[in-house]
């Protein structure tokens, strides 16, 4: 499972082979490479794509040399301080293997679609924190990048016994003193006609996901800090301390460093909620995921059926920036599924007009204008050329008449035909014009 490279005759290599063998991790071909390497010799090490490179250096390696290896792509560097370093290598590979297996498992791939290296890297960090950590996790990323899904993943992978409780901090009403978090006693405020448990109680033993934590009112930030530090809180209007214990996952699309600088977010709370920070990439940073995600959302929208995509539709998807990220892509897929008549691929005419590129924009290669899409649809339905011409003629007459308030003469002039031609086609009664006698 792990391959050792470099200095095969070295005593370290023999020790490593034995330790990896004993742990059932030795052998070539899998995703882990252990490189025995002396940075003083300056041989560059390049990780192969998709493989993790663990570099074992002599204990004489200097700090700049070690950091140069990390910057060069080594996943980790362990210095050989004696045979016990072999155990550290084994532990490191076992942990990577456990994380990689979860990231590739249906528990993750069924929930989170996408195989771009950018998404895989974020998921790997998230799964490692969920599996091996217990501290609060902060998920950052633009709106619609999947932060709530990330919280669901942490909850599922962390195998918490309790519930996942989701609370959007933008919905907290300041006048209720954080009752959504703490719960309240009967009569605590106008309308509190019975006592109610809040999110802290509901999440006990499970996971609390605080979405948009950057919007948490400043007054409640100190209260949250105490709950995260000490696990104690009082219901609004109550004076009994209650205990709770949950895994906290927070998310924001705000720049919390800027919020702290502006005095809108407490630095002590930030350090408390961000023991692990994972950034989800925007959709435009991982264009390879766009089409698989669009197909996934189309399947979701059409209950399993997955129409093909005309090349121009794929090109359009690739060319779009998607500022609303996956939420915007999902909405587009649902709109397209509602328009799609089928059979055959999704055509550009089925993409709502607001998504079309501007006339003066760079038109993505292969983009089909609506007329071309209409002709293709006719061809697919077996409509011949003369019928197509007749359909276009009728449509042109209808539109010209509508443009000119039903005046056949003016419509005829606009179309460059006699008004008789218009009358014949539409059976429009001949109108008396001021020049008619
Ligand atoms: N990788 C993914 N695979 C499948 N669906 C996804 C993926 N990422 C996000 N989605 C879907 O996209 C939509 C938006 O995701 P989500 O609500 O998790 O984003 P968010 O970052 O929390 O948004 P906001 O910042 O607005 O709260 C949801 O319908 C979600 O199920």
Automatic annotation (TrEMBL):
User: What's the superkingdom here?
Assistant: Bacteria
SUPFAM superfamilies tied to this protein: P-loop containing nucleoside triphosphate hydrolases (SSF52540)
Ranges for domain Sigma-54 factor interaction come to: 112-338
SMART domains in UniProt: AAA
Looking up InterPro entries in the UniProt record yields:
AAA+_ATPase, AAA_lid_NorR, P-loop_NTPase, Sigma_54_int, Sigma_54_int_dom_ATP-bd_2
Transmembrane ranges, per UniProt, are: none
Q: Which UniProt keywords apply?
A: ATP-binding, Nucleotide-binding
Name the record gives this protein? Sigma 54-interacting transcriptional regulator
Q: Give the species.
A: Nocardioides jiangxiensis
